[in-house]
């Protein structure tokens, strides 16, 4: 049975007349009569008693009327809910974000978003990029804020690039390699030839983390395919502090360095642009996926704050 059929039977029962119901429904009386006949034939039972005083419901008709009233109310409530969702009066979003980007972005975005959408439920999943991409593929997230890979391994995911951020080398302030770095126009710090790091110990993050993936890519382009790894860590801030204390060398996005404060501060060196030592902050979502108005508003606020 369709919504239209439910409306036909309910309207006839309310009006107690085919002709009055037809006028109310803006349709011809014979057409409405034929529709009711098809409904009764499909059910195998009569829904109305035809009397000289009009139409009354049979027992089956009363059950049909009760059911129709409930279902039509559900239709109406659902349409109102969709209207509320479209006007941001209710709804929910599931977004993913890397731990470090969460620290960088959420405090800037959420107060304004909450003010604009006080009734939208927010589910925020903080994971590394590998986990977030898998959650996107499983349909568990509407979108994720992360850094795009250098080489796209998941063609089902669309990466909407917002901002490019260069990587820098963090090194002990008295390290001998500082003397071999060269000042170059357009670079905020002296530039060091990556190949000079071949024999240096590295402080690395885990392979599932995008910082590590970018670092491996840069070293590979410099011909360093088997770097000496002194420590493998999960927190870039720990890696920076240890680099400042001379326990090894690490690579870090410049934006991450600028947003933190350190008791021990490393020296920074730039990487020649030929190594493509950078990453792109992006909004990741499934190709051709539907994003609600609530999703779109959150994404717009992120782009206003961090897009270029």
- Low-confidence segments, given as residue ranges, are none
Classification by helices and strands = alpha/beta
- Averaged pLDDT: 90
N-to-C series of helices and strands: HHHEEHEHEHEEEHEHEHEEH
Radius of gyration: 32 Å
Shape descriptor reads rod-shaped
Question: Biggest sheet, open or closed, and with what strands and sense?
Answer: 7 strands, mixed
Helix content: 40-55%
Determine the number of helices (DSSP H or I, runs of at least 4 residues).
10
Query: Approximately what portion of the residues adopt beta-strand conformation?
Result: 15-25%
Distance between the termini: 53 Å
Q: Would you count the extended β strands for me?
A: 11
Describe the structure.
This protein is of the alpha/beta class. The chain is 43% helix and 22% strand. It has 10 helices and 11 strands. It has helices spanning 3-15, 18-25, 29-43, 59-86, 99-116, 129-137, 210-221, 236-244, 254-258, 293-306, and strands spanning 48-51, 54-57, 92-97, 121-126, 143-147, 157-171, 201-205, 228-233, 250-253, 267-270, 278-286. The strands form 3 sheets. Strands 3, 4, 5, 6, 9, 10 and 11 form a 7-stranded mixed beta sheet that branches. A two-stranded antiparallel ribbon has the order 1-2. Strand 1 and strand 2 (54-57) form a beta hairpin. It is rod-shaped, with a radius of gyration of 32 Å.
């Amino acid at each position: 049975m369709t919504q239209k059929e439910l409306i036909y039977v309910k309207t006839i029962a309310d009006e107690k007349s085919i002709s009055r119901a037809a006028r109310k429904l803006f349709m011809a009386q014979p057409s409405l009569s034929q529709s009711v006949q098809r409904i009764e034939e499909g059910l195998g039972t009569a829904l109305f008693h035809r009397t000289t005083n009009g139409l009354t419901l049979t027992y089956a008709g009363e059950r049909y009327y009760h059911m129709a009233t409930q279902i039509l109310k559900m239709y109406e409530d659902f349409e109102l809910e969709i209207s509320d969702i479209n006007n941001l009066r209710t709804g929910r979003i599931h977004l993913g974000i890397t731990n470090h980007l969460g620290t960088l972005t959420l405090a800037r975005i959420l107060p304004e978003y909450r003010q604009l959408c006080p009734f939208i439920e927010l589910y925020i999943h903080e994971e590394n990029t590998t986990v977030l991409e898998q959650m996107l593929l499983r349909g568990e997230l509407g979108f994720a804020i992360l850094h795009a890979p250098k080489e796209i391994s998941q063609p089902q995911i669309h990466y909407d690039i917002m901002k490019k951020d260069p990587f820098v080398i963090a090194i002990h302030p008295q390290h001998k390699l500082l003397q071999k770095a060269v000042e170059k126009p357009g670079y905020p710090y002296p530039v060091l030839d990556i190949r000079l790091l071949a024999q240096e110990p590295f402080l690395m993050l885990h392979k599932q983390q995008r910082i590590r993936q970018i670092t491996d890519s840069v070293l590979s382009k410099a011909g360093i395919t088997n770097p000496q790894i002194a420590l493998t860590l999960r927190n870039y801030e720990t890696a920076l502090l240890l680099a400042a204390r001379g326990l090894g060398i690490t690579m870090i996005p410049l934006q991450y360095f600028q947003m933190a404060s350190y008791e021990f501060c490393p020296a920074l060196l730039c990487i020649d642009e030929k190594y493509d030592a950078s990453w792109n902050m992006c909004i990741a979502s499934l190709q051709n996926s539907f994003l609600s108005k609530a999703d779109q508003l959150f994404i717009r606020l992120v782009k206003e704050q961090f897009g270029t």
